[in-house]
Amino acid sequence: MLGALTEPYHATALMANLKRLHIEPRRVVLEVLEQSAEDIERLALAVQQFRDQGFLIALDDFGAGHTNIERIWQLDPDIVKLDRVMLSHAGHNVHAPLSERTRKQRRNMEAVLWGIVSLLHEAGKLVLIEGVETEHEAQLALASGADFVQGFFFARPHPGAADGVHAQTVIGELTERDRLQTEARFLPLIDAMRHACASSLLFTSPRPQESPSDSIAPFIASTDALTASPVAASMPTHAARSRSLRLTIAIFATFT
After folding, report:
1. Which residue has the higher pLDDT, 232 or 71?
2. CA 141, CA 153: separation in Å to the nearest integer?
3. Were both Cys, which of 59, 174, 203, 230 would link to 77 (CB 3.0–4.6 Å)?
4. Do 36 and 134 reside in the same domain of the chain?
5. Buried b (16+ CB within 10 A) or exposed e, 1-15
């Protein structure tokens, strides 16, 4: 807990122990816990002092309690750990009947998770999603673009060194299953693209007095029907899936 290390005695003891064990500060991550800080300026100064010595700083339980966007501005951590509550909201109702309302709720919550990860990346932070307990949550965490994942799904806490081989095997198997599921989900869309290209409805060469942007306008307009398909609807938002789908079809049509 970094808060305790704001006391000079504890900070000195930490440095002495690291020196004795021949561990460089750059290999150590100090974690700021989700607690109210009575003197945030003092905490921020301590964070900066430890960072100057080479330590990495992690902000724990982002999205819960006192750990919010303001705390990121105040402490400028290297790593932000998303609280499990954010992942559980995104994975909520996974076993519920797939009504249109349930699908919409699930897409919206997944989009929020992905958006937060993207925002933190834009701010130059590494993102860790903690509390991963099921395969569905693991897939959500990996799909969000998070840099690190943590939870009982991958391994239980135990003394001693982490079992890297086991963790690598679990993640490898999870990634392969996710790849197969994604391919199966998008096969109908790929078939629709091939049919559209074969029918010469999506792409034509520019005419002599016509710019490439003019000639591709019918192609862009013709993607509207595809973006309304059930497959395309699995993407987070209409605007996002429309942009992604149009880019995908444009690349596909160009090389067909």
Report:
1. 71
2. 12
3. 59
4. yes
5. ebbebbeeeebeebe
What range defines the domain where residue 213 resides? 181-254
In terms of pTM, does the model score above 0.90?
no
Q: Are strands 56-62 and 79-82 parallel, antiparallel or unpaired?
A: parallel
- Tokens linked to 60: 């724990």
The amino acid at 134:
T
Structural domains of the chain, count:
2
What is the average per-residue pLDDT within 15-39? 85
Residue 175 resides in a domain: no
Cβ atoms within 10 Å of 98's Cβ, excluding its own: 9
Q: What is the pLDDT of residue 241?
A: 42
Q: Is residue 96 part of a domain?
A: yes
Assign 27 to helix, strand or coil: helix
Q: Which amino acid type is present at position 93?
A: N
* Strands of the chain, DSSP E: 29-32, 56-62, 79-82, 126-129, 148-149
Q: Is residue 43 part of a domain?
A: yes
Tell me, yes or no, whether 172 lies in a domain. no
